[in-house]
């Protein structure tokens, strides 16, 4: 075969390069006919230039792997594939054009996806038109959600990879349709009514579509998008701001704008982005959003040469520092005692913007951070003068948080950090690879170079080495992958350190978990080690060291060790290179010694050289410690390195022997695997063994292979290890696959004789066994049979040598065995058949044949396969194999069929006496045999054979048509057709692709095979009938029978029942995982590439097996399954249900066949009330693939719904559970069908394929569904009317069913009624009719039904009916307008704005302070950030809404039921106590119903009058003593006030005349802590989101509230303030009555009551917060203002003069009160009370987004006041509050340059404050502000802070000194490296000098008494100074608790401490000992390394202090 194909390729080349330049497609047609799959892929490794016009291709780069070329059979031509896909697209066109979405369009979508999954490429034109069509479809108004989701996912598949379509060049999508859909969810304010009818879309899908479509939006649209989004931005109601930013993140395109458009450069928008970012402080969500935007911008504009790019990428230094500051916040690293930098209260306001979040699991924030950093790095970073470039900042970031990577220091941050480093490395590798391969087109000066790469890897190296030993599994996984990426980039930087850590671990010198980490690290690094000079010499030693890891006591370690060995064997050949290649002895029986006698010992004596070198190297690792640098590139010459390498390979033989020894020991000690597939470690090991053995055996040299074969063969023969049976069988399979001839001839004879021996001598398998236990006597037999059956599967044609022995053996075993061993025998037959008939690869070798023949050299190590150049060995079944297979099939299959026929005949050889189980055993074992034989032969069955399916196609001629759509049944038997699914069973596909079918069609063998399959099917049916009649409780037989049914149905062409494809895919992806690096393609070892080709063959097989038409036999068998799906026995039901599911999937038209049978069975079971059968039927009908067809097919649906309602009455918990779970399925059936879908014609027409090739192959033009688009359009009208007609009939049916159900509701039990009502409502609720009269009757009266569950149900229906009525009226009574969201609200008016007038905003706001208005402006965003030309507003007064007859009729009908009785009943229920606590709140639902009733009343449709309502309302409230009365009252009042807005003036006045006095009374006297929540909701409902002028009397009255200082009813006061605060926060910046309130509150800060003070505090914060707005003239002005301000925009929240005056005034009053307060007063004073009010106000302000308004006030006044408050010991509440606020301060974001004053005042307090408490407290903030502003703080401030803390070590107070030491060590730790080293050397010098210069006088050591006073002071001062020095040095030591080995300066510091101060008395000596012992404690793990950093005399000094003898 190989020779042939070479010939062909040569011919193809000649044909392809014809000199006369005739390169039309024709020449290729001919060449393809002769050569297998040489297509356009051949020339030049990619698509040839003269071959296929590149512009047609749908890819910007060619495929790496030529899939079709490697298949061992002819494949289809490229033009053939394209013709097929054109055909599919035509069908799709017709389906969409005629409105046939399900099944039509969905089916063809599936087809096109399947076609693409075969790695076929759409042309660019096809792809573009399809993308546009699916974009249109997934957003098409009116399409049902589930279908739209299918189209959306297809849209994502088509746009997923960036190399198909280039954004902006090939495809531009319009963002508006998507925005319109999203708006419904997140900006409902733009619509007049809530969309109650159905939420039309799933918002998750929309956001996903955004992610994919965003790339293709046009960057020129950015200004337009901002014009659209930004006017919605408002922080007065913060949800809008969140939504706008989320929309910007999802929608704004980040691809580079076209050249020459200055206005569109990113920097013209960045200042505005930064400005918006700074308006929402302290929000984690916003930080994440902006990082996402910026990181995408950085990625997309990296390649655009015309966009300026500097050391910080696209960003300026200031912007970059701000982003890094945000990164530091996002990592949530704990600093000192600081709380998180975020405030939860801000993100609570995110509201509906949560819908727009990206999935945080898929887009973790660390992903954005890493993307932003890596995409901003370029060589320009290295040129940056001031070290502020992205790369420098990254180094500073990593150094600052280094200690948080250490395993001992783990916490919430561990995972994020590990993830961050992982993504950093991953993005860097990707960018590096793609730049190197030229895939990224990037300007030269931005390309990463060696220097940048070196810096980057050095920066991450240390933290990754810490991370691989992490305690958390996920963090460890991330770190290991990172390690691999870094080593890939810079092997010489990573490998020395890695080996230095790995050797001790592998030698068992450290803890176990470090050993496991090390083995895993080796597995990840193996690929790189094998390629890298010098390091690869270590590999063989490491292999040897890994062996002890195979250990039955530690299965986890065993797994990783095996994985490591597997990785090594994929990378290096286990060939002994130290010998000269000798002649290979090929005959089988020559004995090999380990070293061939005739080979000269070339390179020294075996492994001696290598051993010596490695020993030296390990010593060197030990010596130099973790920081080791090794450069083998220059150290070793090429020759030496090769000599060492060769010598290291001499030990492989020993390795193999000991490896096999360890594996055998492991297998003998494995515990019994209790169950299969339990996921236990034992099972994992058994699964890992074959994965490790296959590559290992494949990489052995022939002599070593013989050695392994001998060992394994001996083990098999000498042992029977029952629990390791499968593992051993797998190992043998691997062994035989590698060299079938050799292995089979060694193993088979022994196995066969052992089997015969066991059976003949030991009588194994002679008795029937029960259960699944295998008898000890049979174990040896099962062991041999299992091994034998794995030795003959997938091993190729060499089995033929033993064909007679195997054939006889099978027969012999079938005759003599019984019981369980027989299953293994049948399995053996199955395997043998698979081996003979299936096409598969037979190639596991690491190298091509040619290389092996030339002999391997050291260069062969670590070589990846070349995907474009493989010679694959395939197993293609030959004639002799097929004959043998058919012989077995006929013998074994025939045997089973005969036996079964006998067993069910009258004269059965075994009696069915019902006592023994012999008969059923016999039946089930023959069924098992039959099943396995069928699936073994599956490859030889063809689904289009006459015995399999009635429709056969003449394959030769019709390849790839779908025979025209059958139009015969127009108008013949109308009703029958139209109810079914249209064309379901006619959508028959016959796109088949060649898969190398082995038999000749129509040959005798072919017929024999298919006949036997048919008779098998018939026998199965007979057995079914027999069992049902005679043995209906025989579960084992039934199970075997239905499993056989399953195989019979699905195993055609490919063995689907074994899930071959899934298995191959999973195993391959697991094995390729370690070789994947971002940005590389298929750089796998050769065996994995070969497996990819094999998998591709199986994908083609699977593709061809699509559902087939049913033959008569199929139908019979399907009905058998349906019958048993409702069996009485659970197990039988389950098996047959699963078989039936599978069968229905593989047969077209099976479902309509089965459904009626199941429905009848259910009906019958209900009559007889047989619960098990009810369960079976319900389950089969509603929980599988039948539910959807039933819902679509209205022949069945009504029956189903009626039956379901009967099922709900059954009283079995298990049935009720089924009912509950399937309710939604049934409700889905009642929904209206889509009656209109709106699609753009042009987009649809663009899909139609061009007919180009019509001329070329006119001769063999295949039949097609339609030649031209006109032909196709001719189909459409007929199809459309058919679909329409069907819809009309179905809707009629639905209406009839609804009427019937409604009648039954009236008389049934509540539980049944509630289920029935749900369906009835679903069936009856339609846009056209709204609801039928009988329905309205049930619903309106149902609202006052005595049963609470029914009440809630009907209430929600009533709300929906009202909602729909209103909706219809607003959309002009037209369904189309409803779909398009076109609202025509008569009350809406458009108010023009005058933003050009500077006084406009002020005038606009003033209008809100007056009650009268021309138009109500409900939304609060217009003008907050920018003005638009107009505002949407509503005209006051009665509503102008017009109802048409339908709506009017419904309203009148409903009104007729509402009389006084109805109202009083309903009100009565409203004030009942709710049943669960959860419902005890203001219920919107009840309020809505009352307001609807009032609405009908105002139109005079109701019997009740408004006077009745007033009476009844008063009755509800009663005396107001009970909270439930209040709840009902609040609901009714809410309804009155909201609905009265639309009434005419007279009625409206009546409402207010009743409501206002009532409310005033309640608010003044009736509020209690119990009922305040209802009234709060009431206020929010009436005022929230509306114009405050709508409820003016209420607003005005609440705003006129003033504090009453004399009252003692604190609650009344605070509750009124609460309500007022609600008004203010609801109305936001529209609330204009704030001045007097502020004045009143600020005047009474010292209110005596705590409750009132708390509300006052929050109230002040709220008022100040809502005063802020920006109101730019328009978006352009906004952008310009920000650009001109600075590169980070304008500072928001600049305090106004008034505000400044207010704050200063408050501070001075506090100061005055403080001085008046006598010290030590226990009772409250004005000072303490006012302070608490102020603190609450500050606390509220600081935890919202406008906290930066207070920044200018921190230094000085505010901070000093806070410190004073903390000193008031008498009032602990005040102290803790003040402390809490104080800790907020440094977490508030400071803009660059704003921290100077703050730092100065911190330093001032630290140095000069008189109270030591204050000095101590300031330290907390110093550390936090330093850390948070690491990237923003100028050098000078940092110096000041360090100096201040250093001086505070001399503080007289011990606590302050200790605090300062802790702070100092924290600051040193997080300082950037260069700065840190400078600080360390300064501090070390400073403190050492202090110690040396201030020695303790001699006599003091004896602690002699001191007499004089000065002496004592001197003495104290000395001790202080020495303590400061000791603490300072200690702080330096403690700053690096984990750095191993310790930094160079550290040993000296410790020695100084130990030598100079350890013997001091008191605290000083104690501190020294503390430091030393801590040092030792944190280094237990690494002491063996760290101890080397000390000189011997230093160690002695230390030991003198630390390890004092106990007795000394």
UniProtKB/TrEMBL annotation:
SUPFAM superfamilies hit by this protein: ARM repeat
Location in or out of the cell: Cytoplasm; Nucleus
Molecular function terms, GO-annotated: peptidase activator activity; proteasome binding
GO cellular component: cytosol; nucleus; proteasome complex
Keywords: Cytoplasm, DNA damage, DNA repair, Nucleus, Proteasome, Repeat
InterPro entries: ARM-type_fold, Blm10_mid, Blm10_N, HEAT_PSME4, PSME4, PSME4_C
Compositionally biased spans, kind Basic and acidic residues: 23-32
Keyword Disulfide bond applies: no
Region spans: Disordered: 15-46, 963-983
Domain Proteasome activator Blm10 middle HEAT repeats region: 394-941
Proteasome activator complex subunit 4 C-terminal domain ranges (all copies): 1920-2008
Positions with biased composition (Gly residues): 37-46
Family affiliation: Belongs to the BLM10 family.
Descriptive protein name: Proteasome activator complex subunit 4
Organism: Acrodontium crateriforme
């Amino acid at each position: 075969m190989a020779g042939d194909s070479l010939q062909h390729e040569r011919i193809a080349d000649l044909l392809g390069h014809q000199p006369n330049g005739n390169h039309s497609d024709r020449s290729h047609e001919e060449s393809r006919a002769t050569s297998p799959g040489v297509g356009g892929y051949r020339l030049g490794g990619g698509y040839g230039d003269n071959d296929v016009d590149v512009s047609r291709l749908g890819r910007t780069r060619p495929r790496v792997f030529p899939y079709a070329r490697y298949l061992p059979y002819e494949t289809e031509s490229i033009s053939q594939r394209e013709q097929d896909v054109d055909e599919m697209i035509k069908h799709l066109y017709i389906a969409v054009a005629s409105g046939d979405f399900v099944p039509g369009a969905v089916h063809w979508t599936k087809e096109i996806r399947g076609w693409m999954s075969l790695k076929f490429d759409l042309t660019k034109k096809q792809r573009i038109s399809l993308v546009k069509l699916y974009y249109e479809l997934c957003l098409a108004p009116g399409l049902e959600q589930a279908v739209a989701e299918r189209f959306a996912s297809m849209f994502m598949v088509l746009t997923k990879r960036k190399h198909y379509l280039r954004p902006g060049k090939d495809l531009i999508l319009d963002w508006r349709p998507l925005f319109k859909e999203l708006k419904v969810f997140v900006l409902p304010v733009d619509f007049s009514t809530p969309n109650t009818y159905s939420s039309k879309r799933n918002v998750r899908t929309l956001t996903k579509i955004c992610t994919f479509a965003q790339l293709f939006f046009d960057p020129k649209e950015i200004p337009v998008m901002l014009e659209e989004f930004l006017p919605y931005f408002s922080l007065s109601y913060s949800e809008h701001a969140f939504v706008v930013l989320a929309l910007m993140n999802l929608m704004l395109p980040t691809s580079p704008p076209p050249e020459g458009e200055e206005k569109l450069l990113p920097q013209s928008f960045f200042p505005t982005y930064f400005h918006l970012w700074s308006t929402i402080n302290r929000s984690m969500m916003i930080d994440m959003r902006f990082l996402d935007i910026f990181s995408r911008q950085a990625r997309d504009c990296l390649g655009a040469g015309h966009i300026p790019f500097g050391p910080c990428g696209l960003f300026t230094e200031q912007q970059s520092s701000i982003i890094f500051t945000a990164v530091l916040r996002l990592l949530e690293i704990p600093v000192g005692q600081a709380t998180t930098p975020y405030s939860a209260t801000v993100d609570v306001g995110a509201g509906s913007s949560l819908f727009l979040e990206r999935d945080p699991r898929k887009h973790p924030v660390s992903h954005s951070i890493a993307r932003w950093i890596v995409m901003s790095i370029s060589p320009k970073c290295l040129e940056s003068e001031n070290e502020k470039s992205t790369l420098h900042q990254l180094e500073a970031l990593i150094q600052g948080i280094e200690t948080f990577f250490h395993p001992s220091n783990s916490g919430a941050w561990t995972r994020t950090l590990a993830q961050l480093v992982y993504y950093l490395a991953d993005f860097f590798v990707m960018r590096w690879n793609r730049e190197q391969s030229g895939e990224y087109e990037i300007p030269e000066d931005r390309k990463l170079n060696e220097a940048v790469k070196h810096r980057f890897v050095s920066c991450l190296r240390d933290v990754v080495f810490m991370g691989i030993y992490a305690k958390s599994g996920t963090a460890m996984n991330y770190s290991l992958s990172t390690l691999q990426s870094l080593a890939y980039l810079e092997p010489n930087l990573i490998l020395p350190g890695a080996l230095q850590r790995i050797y001790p671990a592998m030698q068992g010198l450290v803890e176990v978990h470090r050993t496991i980490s090390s083995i895993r690290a080796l597995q990840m690094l193996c690929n790189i080690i094998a390629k890298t000079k010098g390091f690869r010499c270590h590999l063989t030693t490491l292999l040897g060291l890994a062996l002890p890891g195979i250990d039955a006591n530690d299965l986890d370690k065993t797994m990783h060790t095996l994985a490591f060995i597997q990785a090594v064997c994929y990378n290096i050949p286990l060939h002994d290179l130290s010998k000269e290649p000798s002649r290979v002895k090929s005959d089988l029986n020559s004995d090999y010694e380990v070293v061939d006698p005739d080979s000269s010992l070339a390179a020294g004596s075996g492994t001696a050289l290598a051993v010596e070198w490695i020993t030296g190297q390990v010593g060197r690792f030990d010596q130099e410690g973790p920081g080791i640098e090794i450069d083998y590139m220059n150290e070793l010459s090429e020759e030496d390195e090769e000599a060492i390498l060769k010598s290291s390979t001499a030990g492989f033989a020993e390795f193999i022997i000991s490896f096999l020894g360890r594996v055998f020991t492991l297998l003998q000690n494995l515990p019994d695997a209790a169950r299969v597939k339990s996921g236990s470690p034992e099972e994992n090991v058994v699964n890992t063994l074959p994965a490790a053995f296959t590559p290992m055996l494949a990489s052995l040299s022939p002599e070593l292979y013989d050695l392994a074969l001998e060992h394994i063969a001996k083990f098999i023969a000498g042992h029977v290890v029952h629990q390791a049976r499968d593992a051993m069988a797998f190992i043998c399979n691997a062994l035989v696959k590698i060299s079938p001839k050799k292995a089979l001839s060694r193993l088979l004879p022994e196995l066969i004789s052992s089997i015969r021996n066991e059976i003949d001598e030991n009588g194994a398998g002679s008795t029937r066994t029960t259960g699944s236990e295998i008898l000890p006597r049979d174990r040896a037999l099962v062991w041999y049979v299992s091994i034998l059956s794995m030795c003959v599967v997938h091993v190729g044609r060499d089995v033929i040598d033993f064909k007679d022995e195997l054939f006889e053996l099978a027969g012999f075993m079938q005759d003599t065995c019984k019981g369980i061993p027989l299953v293994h025998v049948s399995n053996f037959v199955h395997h043998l058949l698979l081996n003979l008939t299936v096409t598969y690869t037979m190639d596991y070798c690491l190298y091509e044949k040619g290389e092996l023949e030339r002999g391997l050299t050291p260069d062969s190590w670590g070589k990846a396969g070349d995907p474009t150049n493989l010679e694959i060995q395939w197993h293609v079944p030959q004639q002799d194999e097929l004959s043998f297979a058919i012989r077995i099939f006929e013998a074994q299959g025939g045997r089973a069929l005969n036996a079964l026929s006998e067993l069910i005949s009258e004269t059965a050889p075994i009696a069915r006496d019902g006592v023994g189980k012999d008969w059923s055993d016999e039946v089930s074992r023959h069924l098992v045999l039959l099943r396995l034989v069928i699936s073994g032969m599956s490859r030889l069955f063809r689904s289009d054979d006459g015995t399999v399916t009635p429709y056969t196609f003449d394959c030769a001629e019709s390849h790839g048509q779908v025979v025209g759509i059958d139009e015969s049944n127009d108008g013949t038997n109308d009703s029958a057709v139209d109810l079914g699914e249209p064309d379901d069973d006619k959508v028959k596909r016959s796109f088949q692709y060649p898969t190398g079918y082995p038999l000749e069609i129509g040959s005798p063998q072919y017929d024999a095979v298919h006949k036997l399959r048919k008779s098998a099917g018939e026998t199965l049916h007979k057995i079914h009938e027999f069992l049902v009649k005679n043995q209906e409780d025989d579960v084992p037989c039934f199970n075997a029978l239905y499993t056989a049914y399953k195989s019979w149905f699905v195993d055609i062409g490919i063995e689907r029942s074994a899930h071959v494809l899934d298995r191959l895919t999973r195993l391959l992806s697991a094995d390729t995982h370690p070789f994947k690096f971002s940005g590389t393609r298929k750089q796998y070892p050769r065996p994995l590439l070969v497996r990819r080709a094999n998998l591709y063959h199986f994908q083609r097989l699977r593709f061809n097996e699509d559902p087939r038409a049913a033959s008569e036999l199929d139908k019979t068998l399907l009905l058998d399954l349906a019958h048993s799906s409702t069996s009485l026995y659970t197990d039988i039901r389950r098996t047959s249900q699963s078989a039936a599911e599978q069968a229905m999937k593989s047969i077209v038209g099976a479902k309509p066949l089965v459904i009626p049978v199941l429905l009848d069975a259910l009906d019958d079971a209900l009559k007889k009330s047989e619960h098990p059968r009810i369960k079976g039927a319900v389950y089969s009908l509603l929980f599988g693939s039948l539910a959807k067809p039933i819902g679509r097919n209205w022949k069945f649906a009504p029956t189903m719904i009626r039956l379901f309602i009967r099922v709900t009455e059954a009283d079995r918990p298990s049935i009720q559970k089924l009912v509950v779970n399937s309710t939604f399925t049934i409700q889905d059936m009642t929904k209206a069908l889509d009656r209109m879908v709106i699609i753009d014609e042009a987009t649809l027409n663009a899909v139609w394929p061009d007919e180009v090739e019509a001329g070329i192959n006119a001769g063999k033009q295949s039949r097609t569904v339609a030649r031209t688009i006109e032909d196709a359009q001719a189909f459409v009208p007929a199809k459309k009317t058919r679909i329409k007609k069907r819809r009309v009939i179905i809707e009629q049916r639905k209406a009839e069913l609804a009427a019937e159900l409604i009648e039954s509701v009236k008389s049934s039990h509540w539980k049944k009624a509630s289920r029935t009502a749900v369906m009835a409502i679903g069936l009856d609720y339609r846009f056209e009719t709204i609801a039928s009269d009988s329905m309205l009757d049930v619903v309106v009266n149902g609202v006052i039904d005595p049963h609470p569950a029914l009440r809630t149900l009907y209430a929600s229906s009533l709300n929906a009916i009202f909602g729909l009525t209103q909706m219809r009226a607003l959309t002009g009574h037209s369904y189309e307008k409803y779909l398009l969201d076109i609202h025509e609200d008569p009350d809406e008016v458009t108010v023009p704005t005058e933003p050009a007038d500077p006084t406009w905003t002020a005038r606009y706001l003033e209008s809100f302070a007056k009650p009268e208005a021309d138009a109500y402006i409900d939304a609060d965003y217009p003008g907050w950030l920018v003005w638009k030309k107009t505002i949407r507003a509503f005209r006051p007064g009665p509503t102008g809404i017009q109802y048409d007859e339908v709506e009017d009729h419904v309203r009148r009908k409903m009104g007729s039921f509402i009389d006084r009785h109805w109202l009083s009943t309903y009100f009565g229920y409203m004030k009942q106590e709710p049943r669960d606590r959860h419902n005890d709140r203001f219920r919107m639902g009840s309020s809505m119903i009352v307001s609807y009733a009032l609405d009908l009343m105002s139109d005079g449709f109701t019997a009740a009058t408004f006077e009745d309502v007033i009476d009844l309302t008063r009755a509800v409230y009663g005396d107001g003593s009970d909270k439930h009365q209040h709840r009902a009252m609040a609901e009714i009042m809410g309804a009155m006030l909201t609905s009265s807005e639309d009434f005419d003036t007279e009625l409206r006045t009546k409402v207010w005349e009743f409501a206002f006095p009532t409310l005033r009374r309640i608010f003044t006297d009736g509020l209690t802590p119990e009922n305040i929540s209802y009234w709060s909701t009431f206020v929010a409902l009436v005022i929230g989101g509306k114009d405050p002028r709508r409820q003016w009397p209420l607003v005005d009255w609440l705003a006129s509230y003033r504090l009453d200082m004399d009252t003692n009813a604190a609650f009344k006061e605070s509750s009124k303030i609460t309500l007022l605060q609600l008004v203010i926060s609801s109305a936001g910046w529209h609330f204009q009555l704030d001045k007097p309130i502020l004045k009143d509150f600020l005047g009474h800060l010292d209110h005596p009551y705590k409750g009132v003070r708390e509300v006052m505090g929050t109230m002040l914060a709220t008022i100040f917060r809502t005063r802020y707005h920006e109101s730019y003239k328009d978006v352009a002005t906004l952008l310009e203002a920000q650009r001109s301000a600075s590169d980070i925009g304008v500072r928001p929240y600049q305090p106004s003069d008034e505000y400044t005056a207010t704050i200063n005034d408050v501070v001075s009053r506090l100061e005055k009160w403080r001085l008046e307060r006598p010290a030590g007063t226990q009772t409250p004073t004005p000072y303490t009370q006012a302070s608490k009010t102020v603190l609450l106000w500050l606390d509220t302000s600081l935890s919202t987004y406008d906290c930066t308004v207070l920044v200018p006030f921190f230094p000085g006044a505010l901070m000093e006041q806070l410190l004073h408050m903390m000193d008031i010991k008498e009032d602990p509440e005040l102290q803790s509050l003040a402390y809490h606020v104080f800790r907020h301060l440094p977490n508030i974001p400071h803009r660059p340059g704003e921290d100077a004053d703050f730092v100065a005042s911190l330093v001032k307090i630290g140095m000069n404050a008189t109270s030591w408490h204050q000095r101590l407290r300031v330290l907390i903030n110093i550390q936090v502000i330093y850390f948070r502003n690491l990237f923003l703080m100028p050098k000078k401030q940092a110096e000041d802070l360090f100096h201040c803390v250093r001086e505070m070590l001399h503080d007289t107070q011990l606590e302050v000194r200790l605090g300062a030491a802790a702070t100092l060590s924290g600051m040193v730790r997080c300082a950037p490296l260069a700065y840190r080293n400078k600080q360390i050397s300064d501090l070390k010098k400073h403190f050492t000098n202090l110690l040396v210069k201030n020695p303790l006088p001699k006599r003091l050591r004896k602690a002699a008494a001191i007499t004089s006073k000065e002496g004592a002071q001197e003495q104290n001062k000395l001790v202080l100074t020495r303590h400061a020095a000791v603490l300072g040095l200690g702080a330096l030591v403690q700053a690096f608790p984990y750095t191993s080995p310790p930094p160079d300066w550290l040993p000296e510091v410790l020695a100084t401490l130990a030598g100079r101060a350890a013997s001091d008395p008191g605290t000083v000596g104690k501190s020294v000992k503390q430091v030393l012992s801590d040092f030792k404690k944190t280094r237990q793990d690494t002491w063996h390394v760290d101890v080397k950093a000390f000189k011997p005399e230093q160690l002695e000094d230390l030991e003198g202090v630390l390890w004092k003898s106990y007795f000394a």
